[in-house]
Design a protein that fits this description.
Number of strands: 27
Oligomer: single chain
Radius of gyration: 44 Å
Distance between the termini: 106 Å
Shape: elongated
Length: about 750
């Protein structure tokens, strides 16, 4: 037994050692691969640097050939001899020779001038304008504060096609791929002079822009845009440096109108949404539109090259087709999708293809992974229709069955929805515009699906070549919408019922035919600005059995049916309690207990006042409510009262009262907060505005005064409002007893707002 255990333990040890060896080998292989990649990257960078250095030396050698009238070999030897004698490197000396020949370089030191020349040589050594933009930004422009660089090529119709950029985000770069004529960029294109300034229309933010003309053989072939982060304009040295660095980019853009190109044909191809190229009788490219330039980004200066160079994998099929007499649709050839050849006569032809095929296929796969969303595509030239698997599931069809074209889908729809499909087809085929429709699909199993169809036409120029779009099963959403609609209708009916109930209890303009206690009284109720904000405001005027008069206003917190029902409870409760003859403080304390016991736990503010016509005495108690306002002898003032807590907050609360002797002609205002409350305005200011409005309105008839106050004083919280205007007649009960009461002209408890 011990030998077996030892043998097993040894085997485990061997396996563990073997795994460690494998991991070690894998780690070594990974390290070796990383080292190889690093070495190759360094080698590529070194090759680019050597290429730029050779370009710089070639340019300097050319200058010496012209100046010394010697052969290129003699000029190269002379350059090396000068480098040895001056102690400079060949690259530095070459940069100095070029700067001296230019005679216009504005720099502060020779080192900076040499750096500029090295950067321009590196630009000339690149293979494309895209590489040149990156090289230029990293090699020189970033040092002078440039954040983003755009290079546009001028087309035969004076449009601008983006040839390269560096520093811009992918979305912004895509937005500026194509710039039509008559823009701020074209001022430089047509005038031929650089523009410096701030223009928010241009890409890159809000900093300083420099739009520079790019020349080739003396002709302006494009523009460069440099973007700084700051709005402060750069100085003359920075401006000249930017112009020198961007100057060689024109050599990479090519001629705007290559020889042999017909302007009309080029203009037509520029309108094509996909890539298009013109081929001459010798099989060379005469013109490519902007979309083709982007699609052929790896091919430097495609115009002038042979078709075999530009389309190496497709030329075996494409070459013979170009010389044919009839238009041909080749489909997918050599990595190009939907290739079409249009003969132009005399051996010339236009070649069009689709560059976004791979993205379309990927989009179809992504849509196929979404639940209840199916993809379809139709080629109207070949009659082929393609469905994703989810589309078959949606219509309840066998995945092996042929897909149904959109034009023949009516047989699978509810008969009432066929006109909707026909309208969609009319938009696609006749209107050449995308559209959508919601239809009911009848499945083979008898089930019904609510399907939203969203489709787009596929155009080649003005010709309709296909249709594409999605089918989305929205049955669950449709049923939810029906349920929500029913719920909304029910809620609307309930809100309307509550609104009618509230307005029945608290009418907007009630008539007081028999004034209580000899008082002149006008009451108004203004509902919320929106009917669904049914509130809980109320007012009440009640003649008590002992001859006194109770005046009250209140406001339930919140809106809706709960607020309205709570308002009914509290208003009726206060009426019942008032017949006991208790003073306002006791009434408010009892009403607080009623509020605490009301279903739903409402809270409310209120003020309750009791007026005695025999003495002219007014006693009142508030519960977190706006104060009363008194208008006397043309002057308005706010009536102070003890601060009491609102109703429904705390049990067992005592509510303190205030008292004032009213005089003949005095007018009293009771109101809720919706009458004066304004957003972002302190209540003190709102009350001051109410006081001024009351003084302007004056002590006219109470009905007129109530209407004018409602017109002049308006809160902006969309809340409902209650207002009660009470006046003591010049002659009548309490008139004589009110004279001389209180302190001074107003009496105690009065504050001028």
């Amino acid at each position: 037994m011990s030998r077996d255990i030892s043998r097993d333990t040894g085997a485990d040890t061997d396996r563990g050692t073997g795994q460690e060896v494998v991991r070690g080998l894998r780690g070594a292989a990974t390290d070796a691969l990383a080292a190889a990649v690093s070495a190759l990257t360094a080698e590529v960078a070194e090759l680019y640097d050597d290429r730029a250095r050779r370009r710089l030396l070639d340019l300097a050698t050319g200058v010496l050939v012209d100046q010394l009238r010697v052969t290129p070999a003699e000029a190269a030897d002379h350059l090396l001899e000068l480098a040895v004698s001056t102690g400079l490197s060949a690259g530095d000396l070459a940069a100095d020779i070029l700067n001296a020949a230019a005679k216009s370089l504005v720099v502060e030191a020779p080192a900076e001038a040499r750096r500029i020349r090295r950067a321009t040589a590196a630009v000339l050594a690149t293979d494309s304008a895209g590489e040149a933009a990156v090289t230029l930004l990293d090699g020189g422009l970033r040092r002078i504060g440039v954040r983003t660089l755009y290079l546009w090529r001028r087309t035969g119709t004076d449009c601008l096609a983006l040839a390269g950029q560096a520093g811009a985000g992918p979305q912004e770069a895509q937005h500026w791929q194509w710039v039509p004529p008559d823009t701020p960029l074209h001022r430089v294109l047509w005038e031929g002079t650089a523009w410096w300034g701030v223009d928010d229309w241009l890409p890159g933010g809000s900093g300083t822009r420099a739009v520079l003309p790019l020349r080739r053989h003396g002709h302006i072939v494009g523009v460069a845009l440099c973007v700084w982060d700051t709005a402060e304009g750069p100085d003359d040295r920075v401006r000249r440096t930017a112009e020198l660095l961007c100057e060689p980019c024109g050599a990479l853009l090519g001629d705007p109108d290559p020889p042999g190109t017909r302007a009309g044909e080029a203009a037509l191809l520029e309108l094509a949404s996909g890539p298009a190229a013109l081929l001459g009788t010798d099989g060379r490219l005469e013109y490519v539109n902007p979309a083709a330039r982007r699609a052929l980004g790896a091919v430097r200066s495609p115009v002038g090259r042979s078709g075999a160079e530009v389309f190496p994998y497709a030329w075996g099929v494409l070459g013979p087709a170009v010389g044919g007499p009839e238009p041909l649709r080749l489909g997918r050839v050599g990595g190009l999708d939907d290739v079409r050849v249009l003969p132009l006569g005399r051996g010339r032809a236009a070649v069009l293809w689709e560059a976004a095929a791979l993205r379309s296929e990927a989009l179809a796969r992504v849509l196929g992974r979404l639940d209840r969303v199916g993809y379809f595509a139709e080629d109207l030239l070949t009659g082929a229709t393609d469905w994703s698997r989810e589309t078959y599931t949606l219509f309840g069809m066998d995945p092996d069955a042929p897909p149904v074209p959109l034009a023949r889908l009516g047989a699978r729809l509810h008969p009432e929805d066929v006109p909707l499909l026909e309208g969609l087809l009319a938009s696609l085929v006749e209107g050449r515009r995308g559209d959508r429709a919601l239809v009911r699909a009848i499945r083979a199993d008898g089930g019904v699906r609510h399907v939203r169809i969203a489709a787009e036409p596929l155009l080649s120029g003005a010709a309709l070549v296909g249709l594409t779009g999605v089918y989305q099963d929205v049955s669950a959403q449709h049923h939810n919408e029906l349920a929500l609609s029913a719920a909304h209708e029910d809620a609307t009916a309930r809100a309307l019922f509550v609104l009618r109930l509230q307005r029945a209890i608290v009418p907007e303009a009630p008539s007081v035919t028999e004034p209580a206690g000899g008082l002149d009284i006008a009451a108004r109720y203004r509902p919320a600005a929106q009917d669904y904000l049914v509130g809980g405001d109320w007012y009440d005027v009640l003649a008590l059995p002992d001859g006194r008069v109770m005046l009250a206003v209140g406001d339930i917190a919140g809106h809706g049916i709960d607020a309205a029902t709570s308002m009914v409870v509290l208003r009726n409760a206060l009426r019942g309690l008032a017949v006991t003859g208790a003073d306002p403080g006791a009434l408010m304390a009892w009403l607080n207990e009623v509020t605490l016991g009301t279903r739903g736990g409402p809270t409310a503010t209120a003020v309750c006042a009791v007026y005695d016509p025999g003495t002219g005495s007014l006693r009142w108690a508030g519960a977190g409510h706006p104060p009363l306002l008194l208008l006397r002898d043309g002057r308005a003032a706010i009536l102070e009262a003890p601060l009491n807590i609102l109703l429904g907050a705390v049990a067992g609360v005592t509510y303190e009262e205030a008292e004032l002797r009213l005089r003949p002609g005095d007018t009293l205002l009771l109101y809720t907060d919706g009458f004066v409350e304004r957003r972002r305005v302190a209540m003190e200011r709102s009350l001051a505005a109410l006081r001024r409005a009351a003084e302007r309105v004056g002590a006219g008839p109470v009905e007129t005064m109530a209407d004018e106050l409602l017109a002049r004083v308006t809160g902006d919280t969309d809340d409902d409002t209650s207002l009660v205007v009470v006046r003591v007649p010049r002659t009548g009960p309490g008139g004589a007893s009110g004279r001389g009461a209180g302190r001074g002209a107003w009496g105690s408890g009065v504050r001028e707002a």
